[in-house]
Amino acid sequence: MMPVCRPVLTTHEAIIPYLKRIDDNQVYGNDGPLLLELERRLCHHFNLEKGRLLCAVNGTVALQVALLALSENKMNNFLCLMPSWTFTATPAAAFSAGLTPYFVDVDKETWALTPEIAEKALKNVPGKVGCVMTVSPFGYPIPTEEWDFFTEKTGIPVLVDGAGMFVEVEFANTPIVVSMHTTKCFGMGEGGFIASKNLNLMEEIAYRRNFGMSSDRLSHFIGTNAKVSEYAAAVGLAQLDDWPNKSQILLEKARLYKEQLSKIRGIRLQPGYGESWFGGNLVIEFEKPVALEASEFLNQHDIETKFWWRQGCHLQEAYRQFESTPLPNTEILASSTLGIPFSVKLSEHEISYICDTLNRFVESK
Ligand SMILES: Cc1ncc(COP(=O)(O)O)c(C=O)c1O
User: Fold this and answer.
1) What's the domain range around 349?
2) Residue 75 pLDDT > 70, yes or no?
3) pLDDT of residue 77
4) pTM of the shown model
């Protein structure tokens, strides 16, 4: 079976020079030199000024830390508006930051929560809103500046759950969290980062990442332990060395998919996919609610598929208890979108086989 996700991270040979440096430094955690170098290099990569990006142990805890900072310690039980069309890490992070998830719908075209949808939802929310979380579906680049305007207009802070983003990221005052989990395009095992142009916010996030403590070892803020060990930073640095090569290969695969899928009537991709951006996973949309049938058809032809976000969060056992607006677009996406294989290892031949099989499926409908 052709796997839907076949992550390939950097090799141990590439990591060894960094591990040797850990032996020499004898520093293993707590903002060690390798972590500081990784943060500096990621800032450089994204053209961000120093201090505007901080790594965290994973994306979920990064979301929690950012939400704690946006909350200013005073939003216990306030609502956090978020799409149901996301991975359950999004509501989990809100809940662990003291917020109550409230699910809203997404845009049909991009599959993301827009400021317009959020503003409309605000008119009928059943409580005080502490924060809005918008989510990048599978790497789609969220227009972050639009969310700065939303905050200016409504006074409500926003966090971008950009877990799937890395290739095209718009930085603004609104903080963004990116995941560096294995399944994401820039994977380092477990890891994530928080970035914002708002330096005051980032300084507070730095404290909250370390139990809310400053140098006096007193907790001035509520925080957690989201710090990254030097060993994890070593993997991140080696991965970053390889990124120009890996990203080029992935972009070529995404382009090839885009070219072949655009010839199949009844299948579409999110705007800009395979042109300016790609993510770690590829999800396609059928014109009709046939994703389940398509999945069975592809599986019969040795192609693995995945419903990455299942039916949305609002239907999952742990999150059914939370309220939501009507979610017609989420329901459409749940029955019409499907994850198909994407990885550096996928050959041109395999991509053609997958697209031919999809074409045969669509023609049979
Ligand atoms: C939308 C979304 N948010 C958050 C996360 C959590 O990231 P991590 O796995 O790094 O904790 C994920 C991970 O898959 C995700 O897809």
Assistant:
1) 243-363
2) no
3) 79
4) 0.98
Query: Final residue of a domain: which of 212, 237, 262?
Result: 237
Estimate to the nearest angstrom the gap between the alpha carbon of 86 and the chain centroid: 9
What's the CA gap between 287 and 101, in Å, rounded?
30
Interaxial angle between packed helices 230-261 and 12-25, expressed in degrees from 0 to 180 and rounded to the nearest 10: 150
Q: Choose the final residue of a domain: 237, 258, 289.
A: 237
Given a cut of 70, whether residue 130 has pLDDT beyond it is: yes
The best mutation among 55, 60, 309 to test binding of ligand 1, ranked by most ligand atoms within 8 Å of the C-beta, falls on 60
Ligand 1 neighbour 89 (Cβ under 6 A): yes
What are the pLDDT digits (tens) for 207-221?
999 999 998 999 999
The verdict on 163 and 266 lying in the same domain is no
Q: Does one domain contain both 25 and 117?
A: yes
* Same domain, yes or no: 106 and 31: yes
Nearest-CA neighbor of 138 among 114, 165, 113, 161? 165
Alpha-carbon span 362 to 365, nearest angstrom: 5
Same domain, 200 and 278: no
Rounded average pLDDT over 120-145: 97
Can you read off the two tokens belonging to residue 226? 């989201």
CATH number for the domain that contains residue 77: 3.40.640.10
Ligand 1 atom closest to 86 (CA) = 1
Would you say residue 71 has pLDDT above 90?
A: no
Task: Tell me if 139 CB under 6 Å of ligand 1.
Answer: no
| pLDDT value at 352 more than 70 | yes
Spatial contact of 313 and 333, defined as CB atoms under 8 Å apart: no
Site to substitute for ligand 1 among 67, 160, 176, 179, most atoms within 8 A of C-beta:
179
Q: Are residue 32 and residue 144 in the same domain, yes or no?
A: yes
Which atom of ligand 1 is closest in space to residue 309's alpha carbon? 16
181 CA to centre of ligand 1 in angstroms: 7
